[in-house]
Design goal:
By secondary structure, the protein is an alpha+beta fold. Helix content is 53%, strand content 18%. It contains four helices and three strands; from the N terminus they run H-E-H-H-H-E-E. The protein has a three-stranded antiparallel β-sheet with strand order 1-3-2.
Length: 113
């Protein structure tokens, strides 16, 4: 299947969820979620970190329009993106941690490398 997964959500709800999860990932360095959500959040986080590597006004505005907290944007430009300056991708890793107890959904740990 090409493109993005729908994740059982309407478009606006899905985009808001992904924005919030990417913000949380950048804030804390790791999140625990379902495997399919982790794959989608990983794509978005990699895109955001790549944009953050260009430390100019246009990229700051693009990040501010996506990330929901301004202090996380500052952290992205000051700490996270410089750490990956020489890397051309692969900023996140997904580790499967087994099924969830309630509904047996495959759970994963998504973290910044």
């Amino acid at each position: 299947m090409a493109g993005n997964r729908k994740l059982g959500r309407a478009t606006d709800v899905r985009k808001a969820m992904l924005r919030a999860m990417v913000t949380y990932l950048l804030e804390n360095g790791k999140i625990k979620t379902t495997y399919k959500r982790a794959k989608e959040v990983s794509k978005e986080a990699e895109r955001i970190i790549t944009i953050g590597k260009n430390n100019n006004l246009a990229s700051k505005r693009r990040i501010l329009s996506y990330v929901t907290k301004e202090d996380i944007t500052k952290k992205l430009f000051d700490e996270i993106s410089p750490k990956y300056k020489e890397t051309k991708g692969g900023y996140t890793s997904i580790v499967k941690i087994g099924p969830r107890r309630g509904d047996a959904a495959e759970m994963a740990l998504l973290k910044l490398v």
